[in-house]
Design goal:
A: alpha+beta; 7 helices; B: alpha+beta; 4-stranded mixed beta sheet; 9 strands; 9% strand; elongated
């Protein structure tokens, strides 16, 4: 396993952990969620995916950035489930535990969790196979510094094993503080296990590689702790003029020949 | 036209490839033969010198090869021909290089040693008769030629080869080293120490890793040992240094007694020393395994902190530390005094020796490792193109240091704790020791 230094999340984020996060722009917490908690979220994700495909959700709560994939049996599969905590009470209870809510302190003592606007907490699935529409994600930052939500810490709760083979997170540590210079940036591959939480700054450069042929899919529940202003409920994830740019970040397996 | 004039005309024509084509009807082999014949017919040193000069740099390999063959015929009497053969031994075209190498071998041309050594990729092991892997005729011929020259006249080989012998990684001197058994070892702790003055969250969680057996220096490298390395660099140059080291670098250290640990060295200094000694810097895991033993002790000597067992701020100032402010108050304006006291005490101090006899793993000096701070992988810096001030933004330029120093509080002396410092950092609190990994 790629061994990005892992921390333990005790009762909450400590000053030392916050210092690490501020210096490198990311931090890995190992074993934060129990296997039972991971299973709860996975089960709720399956149910929400079914409800979404059945058309039971209002269109504004359905992802408009990644079209559905087709699995090996030809069934439609979704890549993103927005407003996850709005529809999944078990997950909502888990992420509101004080120790997980303490992740907000990485960015600001009074930071708040994004839930009812801009897609809220988002479940995301990367998968391989010819029908995949989201196998990798290009290099990007999550939010510009002048975004209304910024500063933001993006906290990914890993629900599956995440390895180099199925396109684990790649991050350029310190890129949130130092712009690219004459040497090409060197990414760090951050592998993770179910129950781990990987947090990164809104403006750190990151992406993820493709799910290679035969490698299992992997799902992550992303929480966003915001130090900026609350912009009001039920806003779209990206304004219409930016939507195509955001869509281009997601790369299907067929597009890269990695299916 | 006289033979000398004809040779000169041929030479002039050959310098211009277009003229060469016109003059020889495009038959370059014919032109090359005429060049050799007219040069030999001229019989003058000037003609020979000019032809050799043309042959050294001519764009057409047939001309270069013809001149090599000419040089081979007259190498016994013409020093310039011997030099040409050495030069041609490095020709990119085997059709030129191999005849030159055969000639060097046949004539035992010691003057070509630099070029021959280049053919061996400057690998000292090849000088001992091993041309290296692969079916590379150049390497084999170069190795055999050098071996033949050395056998005939050991004194014939000059500076580069002597330096190469020095460059060859020596067998590490295991005297002063301790063997550490391998196996699965636990790194980190299950719980952070209660109420630390400094945040040491890095120590948790505990995790197990496998570590093969290795040898580690029983104590940090001393000033005297480092000075021997400096003397070797002064004599032979920077032949042991890390490839990323800045070309204008001057290795240096902080002043101190000969038997005190070397301090004021950056990571490149430490890496170069280790290479010179035939060793390397320890990995994170090796360092912690050596300090905490197979059973994973909290400190080198046991599970409870004991200021008397190590050289630390508490032991030097004689009282427990109660606050972070107190740390800085004790160090303020006394750093010089504390540092000198620590250095003077180092050699005679027990240093909290582990059961295996490894000393000063807690306190005295922080120690460089070869592990990157962020992910623990071996550091592989490639920053020489950067201004040193820009390194602060390069995550791979932070290396783990271990063990705490004479200025540290108790929790920083936990061998499970790791801090990160820039490769270029120099401090009177940072030294190093080395490991040897047997094959």
């Amino acid at each position: 396993m790629s061994a990005a230094h892992g921390f333990a999340l005790g009762d909450g984020v400590t000053a030392g952990q916050r210092a690490w996060y501020e210096q490198f722009g990311f931090i890995v917490f190992r074993g934060v969620l129990s296997p039972e908690e991971v299973e709860t979220i996975r089960g709720e994700a399956e149910a929400l995916e079914r409800r979404t495909l059945a058309g039971e959700l209002p269109p504004s709560d359905v992802d408009d950035l990644t079209p559905p994939s087709r699995d090996e049996a030809g069934n439609a599969r979704l890549h993103r489930l927005p407003y996850f905590t709005r529809y999944c009470p078990g997950a909502r209870e888990i992420v509101h535990q004080p120790r997980i809510a303490s992740l907000a302190r990485l960015v600001a003592d009074d930071a708040w969790m994004l839930e009812d606007t801009l897609h809220g907490a988002i479940w995301q699935l990367k998968r391989g196979g010819k029908g995949s529409r989201y196998s990798e994600i290009r290099w990007h930052i999550d939010f510009e510094d002048d975004h209304v939500l910024s500063p933001v810490v993006s906290a990914g709760i890993y629900l599956d094993e995440s390895t180099v083979r199925n396109g684990c997170l790649a991050v350029v540590p310190m890129s949130h503080r130092y712009p690219p210079r004459k040497l090409p940036p060197v990414p760090l591959l951050v592998e993770a296990r179910p129950g781990d939480v990987v947090c990164h700054a809104h403006n750190v450069y990151h992406g993820s590689g493709p799910v290679l042929a035969g490698a299992p899919s992997r799902a992550t529940l992303y929480l966003y702790f915001c130090g900026g202003e609350y912009p009001g409920p039920d806003l779209p994830f990206a304004p219409p003029e930016h939507r195509s740019r955001v869509r281009r970040l997601f790369v299907g397996a067929g597009e890269r020949g990695t299916a | 036209m006289s033979p000398g004039g004809l040779a000169s005309a041929v030479q002039r024509a050959l310098v211009d490839p277009d003229a060469l084509a016109r003059w020889s009807d495009g038959d370059v082999r014919h032109a090359a033969a005429i060049l050799v014949d007219t040069t030999l017919a001229a019989g003058t040193e000037a003609a020979v010198q000019e032809t050799l000069a043309i042959g050294a740099v001519h764009p057409h390999p047939v001309i270069r090869r013809a001149v090599v063959e000419l040089a081979s015929r007259i190498a016994g009497t013409t020093p310039a021909a011997r030099a040409l053969l050495g030069w041609a031994a490095a020709d990119p075209d085997d059709d030129v290089a191999l005849p030159a190498l055969h000639a060097c071998r046949r004539h035992g041309i010691a003057e070509a040693e630099e070029e021959l050594f280049d053919q061996l990729h400057r690998a000292p092991s090849a000088l001992r008769g091993d041309p290296g892997p692969g079916a590379d005729a150049r390497r084999a011929l170069a190795a055999e030629t050098l071996a033949r020259v050395a056998e005939r006249d050991p004194g014939a080989l000059r500076s580069s080869l002597v330096a190469a012998e020095a460059l060859a990684p020596p067998e590490p001197d295991l005297d002063g080293m301790v063997r550490i058994e391998g196996g699965e070892v636990v790194l980190g702790l299950d719980e952070a120490p209660p109420a630390p003055l400094f945040d040491v969250d890095h120590v948790v969680p505990a995790r197990a890793v496998a570590v093969p057996p290795f040898w580690i220096d029983a104590a940090p490298v001393t000033n005297r040992q480092f000075d021997a390395f400096l003397a070797a660099v002064a004599e032979h140059g920077h032949v042991w240094c890390h490839h990323d080291e800045a070309p204008e670098r001057v290795h240096r250290r902080a002043p101190g007694p000969g038997d005190a640990p070397v301090t004021g060295v950056d990571w490149y200094d430490a890496s170069a020393y280790a290479a010179w000694a035939g060793k390397q810097l320890p990995s994170d895991a090796q360092w912690e395994r050596a300090a905490r033993g197979e059973e994973g002790r909290r400190y080198p000597w046991g599970d409870r902190f004991d200021a008397a067992r190590c050289i630390s701020l508490e032991s030097l100032t004689g009282a427990p530390l109660r606050s972070r402010a107190e740390v800085w108050e004790r160090r303020a304006e006394r750093d010089d005094e504390l540092w000198r006291a620590a250095m003077d005490a180092a050699a005679a101090h027990d240093g909290g020796a582990t059961p295996e006899g490894v000393r000063h793993m807690s306190g005295l000096v922080w120690e460089w490792t070869r592990s990157r701070f962020v992910d623990g992988a071996d550091a592989d810096p490639r920053y020489r193109a950067l201004d040193a001030r820009q390194l602060t933004g390069e995550w791979g330029a932070y290396v783990a240091i271990r063990g705490g120093s004479w200025g540290s509080a108790a929790e920083q002396l936990l061998p499970a704790y790791r801090a990160g410092r820039l490769l270029l950092a120099r401090s009177r609190e940072i030294g190093f020791r080395c490991v040897h990994e047997p094959l």
